[in-house]
Design goal:
GO terms for molecular function: GTP binding. This is Tetracycline resistance ribosomal protection protein. Keywords: GTP-binding, Nucleotide-binding, Protein biosynthesis. Pfam families: EFG_III, EFG_IV. This protein is an alpha+beta fold. The chain has two domains: about 70 residues, Alpha-Beta Plaits (2-Layer Sandwich), CATH 3.30.70.870; about 55 residues, no CATH class. Helices cover about 30% and strands about 25% of the residues. It is built from three helices and seven strands. The strands form two sheets. Strands 1, 2, 3, 4 and 5 form a five-stranded antiparallel beta sheet that branches. Strands 6-7 form a two-stranded antiparallel ribbon. Strand 2 and strand 3 form a beta hairpin. It is elongated, with a radius of gyration of 20 Å. The mean pLDDT is about 90.
Length: about 150
């Protein structure tokens, strides 16, 4: 199964060198993926197995002279809904006189069709910038998966 973990240099000064080294390693290994989380700014490493992580750690230490701190890897689960589901929450925070209801519906699609997002809220009810934030939050949540 695919695994995922965070990796960081032991010294902050080596962060750029670590990113460069991981990019080089990922370019030569199609089963290795490196990315920086857009919110936490952590370096995320996805790989196929623990042996691959050991090899990457050894290369970083021996070839690139970068000592790293690696968290315990977790399995990445890709889930697919089995049936349609909906949920709505109502938000009211006194003393703010405004309230909101937010609903989300999830419907299974045919395998291989990816993720489709559709907003049914008109711009008269919710500004485009807020609708974009909702869309981006959903995409971010989907990228994280369950781990």
């Amino acid at each position: 199964p695919m695994l995922r973990t965070t990796i960081a240099p032991k010294t902050a000064a080596q962060r750029e060198r670590l990113l460069d080294a991981l990019t080089q390693l990922a370019d030569t290994d199609p089963l290795l993926r490196c990315e920086v989380d857009s919110i936490t700014h952590e370096i995320i490493l996805s790989f196929l197995g623990r042996v691959q992580l050991e090899v990457v750690s050894a290369l970083l230490s021996e070839k690139y002279k970068i000592e790293t701190v690696v968290k315990e890897p977790t399995v990445i689960y890709m889930e697919r809904p089995l049936k349609a589901a909906s949920h709505t929450i109502h938000i009211e925070v006194p003393p703010n006189p405004f309230w909101a209801s937010i609903g989300l519906s999830v419907t299974p699609l045919p395998l291989g069709s990816g993720v489709q997002y559709e907003s049914r809220v008109s711009l008269g009810y919710l500004n485009q910038s807020f609708q974009n934030a909702v869309r981006d939050g959903i995409r971010y949540g989907l990228e994280q998966g369950l781990f």
